[in-house]
Amino acid sequence: MAQEADVLLFASALRDFLRAADLISWSVTGTPAASLVDKALNAFHGSVPNLTNIRNVLEHFDTYEKGRGILQNDAAKRGEDVWSTCIWVDAQDGRILLFVAPGDAKHWRLDVQEATAAAGTLYQAISATLTKCSTDDPAG
């Protein structure tokens, strides 16, 4: 049970980390560091797709359980069936996986180990960028 709670908190913290990375990306727009951060963000999104959707369902689970989540509304507008949300944690081949099904035909998977590695790589790129920015600042 503790493992499930940890994974849910991890998903939320990872989304907050991504928000911070997006803010840093915005702040370095137009600088030489921008391409490094953008490349790292693209790699992160490739490794951890649908993180925003996963966080949305977890944060608003009560709305999704009632069949009124934003993503469910989109499915209903397309004429697709909508049912209750399913959230589960599983371990497969030594990996911890979070599955989120928002109540339509799709589901998303968050591989904790893969996400951790992707976040580490993104952090290193951002850290190098911030270090470079701080050493390039003549006032700093």
Would you write up a description of this structure?
This protein is α+β, with helices and mostly antiparallel strands. The chain has one domain. The chain contains 6 helices and 3 strands. α1 runs antiparallel to α2, α1 crosses α3 and α1 packs parallel to α6. The chain is globular. The mean pLDDT is 85.
**Total domain count:** 1
Indicate the multimeric state. single chain
Largest sheet: 3 strands, antiparallel
Task: Report the strand count.
Answer: 3
Number of helices: 6
Class by SSE composition: alpha+beta
Indicate the mean pLDDT. Answer: 85
Tell me, briefly, the overall form: globular
CA distance, first residue to last residue? 48 Å
How do the strands line up in the largest sheet? 1-2-3
Into which percentage range does the β-strand content fall?
A: 5-15%
Structure keywords:
single chain; alpha+beta; 3-stranded antiparallel sheet
Concise summary:
62% of the residues lie in helices and 13% in strands. By secondary structure, it is an alpha+beta fold.
